[in-house]
Design brief:
By secondary structure, the chain is of the alpha/beta class. Helices cover 28% and strands 21% of the residues.
């Protein structure tokens, strides 16, 4: 069974025929790829262990729009199912609640799952830590997709936070603000 990644599809390497997208990312990518494949004449089944497509987008008020759009375009949605097995010409999925399995015929699978960090530059620089002092470098911090691949908004936030905290002591994971706790006093 041919297996593709979002990077493959975004590079123009597209499968044909009946395609199963397994979306364990829960953001926008699974829906975007389903639309891309439908526009290129594929029959698409989107499988997710979540109870809704692109479940995280409830936080950005886009979830209903995304699910409606996919249904209107003819994408078959299989919700609350996890991927069990990729076989020749099919995938086996199991209900997240009952464990009952079923097969979906397919010519290819697209896996929208966790990505690995792109941290080679950081590791190369960290390996030469002994040379930092002579170059005037005090520290190097791993942020953005090098630390953990995420949506663009999170990478932008990581860069913005790094710039704000540059040359300050490392606050760790503490929030960069003080929380005010209001107290009522008796009259």
């Amino acid at each position: 069974m041919p297996v593709f990644t979002p990077d493959d599809l975004m590079s123009g390497i597209l499968p044909n025929g009946r395609i199963v997208i397994y979306d364990d990312d829960h953001f926008y990518m699974g829906g975007v790829l389903a639309e891309l494949l439908m526009a290129n004449g594929c029959t698409v089944t989107l499988v997710t262990p979540a109870t809704r497509v692109s479940d995280w987008t409830t936080n950005t008020l886009e979830q209903g729009f995304i699910q409606r759009r996919l249904l209107e375009r003819g994408v078959d949605l299989v919700l609350s199912h996890a991927l069990n097995l990729i076989g020749p010409g099919y995938v086996e999925v199991a209900c997240s609640y009952t464990g009952r399995s079923s097969r979906i015929e397919a010519e290819a699978v697209v896996l929208v799952t966790a990505r690995l960090p792109e941290d080679r530059l950081y590791l190369d620089v960290k390996a030469r830590e002994a040379e930092w002092e002579s170059a005037g470098i005090v520290s190097v911090k791993l942020i953005g997709d090098a630390a953990a691949p995420a949506p663009i908004a999170w990478a932008v936030h990581a860069g913005h936070r790094y710039a704000r905290e540059l040359d300050e002591s490392d606050p760790g994971d503490a929030p960069p603000f003080r929380r005010e706790v209001a107290a009522l006093s008796p009259r």
